[in-house]
Design a protein that fits this description.
Order of helices and strands: HEEHHEEEH
Subcellular location: Endomembrane system
Number of domains: 1
Family: Belongs to the DESIGUAL family.
InterPro entries: DEAL/Modifying_wall_lignin1/2, DESIGUAL
Strand order of the largest sheet: 1-2-3
Distance between the termini: 71 Å
Shape: elongated
Helix content: 40-55%
Mean pLDDT: 79
Largest sheet: 3 strands, antiparallel
Number of strands: 5
Membrane topology: Multi-pass membrane protein
Radius of gyration: 31 Å
Main location: membrane
Low-confidence stretches: 79-85
């Protein structure tokens, strides 16, 4: 059981790093204006490795998110040993998990956009007077997706770690109440006997 505490974050991090590496590779091999050909009134877009690399990167990102979320749900459903209260970081952990999914969705959308624009297809050309232009994807779309995927994984791991965290052992624990309260003026220290009662 304790081994999973280390194994799960490592698996999530490995998946996220692999996804980011594929994202950077897709960025390096994406479509450029020089690759696009104009033929028969349409723009011809050749197949690029970025298409497949982007699909694999997105799949690894989704897998990392599912593993992190499943681990967090398991931690959130389990009670701490001894039936104590839940972790004080629960709200922060839930917020981190939600933010992790939001960032992951943005990263997946960026991957999907990059994959779509690097597929082998034809698109209509845009005429600008005497010139003919072919649209292509601008900006570092795959690089942005890779960095966002890493950020999502880190947030997911932080959420898991906060849910696994237990209260400090040195925290003051409530003392059992036996229902007996000391009388007014009675000594609190049991090592001293009560004063003797003198007859008047």
């Amino acid at each position: 059981m304790e081994g999973s505490v280390v194994v799960l974050p490592v698996v999530v991090l490995l998946f996220a790093v692999a996804s980011a590496v594929l994202g950077f590779m897709a960025e390096a091999s994406k479509l450029t204006p020089a690759d696009i050909k104009y033929s028969g009134g349409v723009c011809v877009y050749p197949a690029k490795p970025a298409h497949v690399l982007g699909i694999c990167a997105a799949a690894l990102l989704v897998a990392a998110q599912i593993i992190a979320s499943a681990a967090g749900i398991c931690c959130g459903c389990s009670k701490p040993p001894g039936g104590g209260a839940a972790s004080p970081n629960r709200k922060k952990a839930v917020s981190s998990a939600v933010l992790s999914w939001v960032v992951a969705v943005v990263a997946a959308a960026s991957y999907a956009q990059g994959v779509a624009w690097n597929a082998a297809t034809t698109r209509g050309a845009v005429r600008d007077g005497w010139f003919v232009r072919c649209h292509y994807l601008k900006g570092a779309i795959f690089r942005r997706a890779a960095l966002l995927g890493l950020a999502a994984a880190v947030l997911g791991i932080c959420s898991y770690a906060m849910l696994r965290e237990r209260p400090a052992s040195g925290a003051a624990e409530p003392k059992p109440d036996d229902g007996q309260q000391p009388a007014a003026g009675q000594a609190q220290n049991p090592s001293y006997p009560p004063p003797p009662v003198q007859a008047v």
